[in-house]
Amino acid sequence: MIAREKLASHLGSKPAPGDLALVQAFINTWVFDATKDLIQTRDGLRTWLSDLELLDPNASVTDCDVEQARAVREALRSLTFTNNGGPDDPNARDTLNRAARSAQFAIGFQSGGRAGIEPRAPGVDGALGKILVIALDAMADGIWQRLKACPADDCRWAFFDETKNRSGTWCAMRVCGNRTKARAYRRRHTHAGAAAEVYSQPKRTSRDSAEPNP
Ligand SMILES: [Zn+2]
Q1: Ligand 1 centroid from CA 197, angstroms
Q2: What is the CATH number of the domain that holds 109?
Q3: Domains: count for the chain
């Protein structure tokens, strides 16, 4: 079980339950409106993974690992965008299939008559494999489809949709839902709207306030 308190800032007001929160947090190590990508350097990636006990703090991390981790993150984001009505993304699936091969998955028999899939690869490949296993488990449990990426072009924050009929669309209606609707309104009703949008710098408020679902 993961230490959720370490993930709080990556979960916002709609956190995923159990270990799926780790996948959500991984996707949210960067979103479109943030300047800082927490895993864009070797040190950043090592720190993030080792803080969550997915990687040895002394493990070597290469530029290739950073590239791979960011590709896997964006592939997972793409899948959660599909969960929110976005298109199927074969490239994302290819990326994840490649990451699964690099993780060298094997069946591991555990005490208590349990067994599961475990990555055998060391280092970052193995750490990414642990994240993929959580996604796989969530798919088997039927909760994966509730992990969604916000469709706002300048957001794509991953959130967990707890609505009964899985109808939640936005990470925060007050922030992204209203902003996107206002833009669509401007586009429809004014010629200047489209131009204004190009020059406007989106500003967001905290996602952490409690939000009713749309
Ligand atoms: Zn959003």
Answers
A1: 17
A2: 1.10.3300
A3: 1
Residue 4 φ/ψ, nearest 5 degrees:
-65, -30
Answer yes or no: is 194 within a domain: no
Distance 147 CA to ligand 1 centre (A): 13
CA of 199 to the centre of ligand 1 (A): 20
Ramachandran region of residue 87, left (φ > 0), alpha (ψ -120 to 50) or beta? beta
- The boundaries of the domain holding residue 136 are 14-160
3-state percent helix, strand, coil for the chain, nearest multiple of 5: 50, 10, 40
Residue 160 Cα, ligand 1 centroid: separation in angstroms?
A: 12
In-domain check, residue 37: yes
98 falls within a domain: yes
pLDDT tens-digit series, residues 130-186: 999 999 999 999 999 999 999 998 889 999 999 999 999 999 866 787 777 777 767
Chain length of the chain: 214
pTM of the model: 0.83
In a domain, residue 87? The reply is yes
Q: Phi and psi for 18 in degrees, rounded to 5? A: 55, -145
For the chain, how far is it from start to end, CA to CA, in angstroms?
31
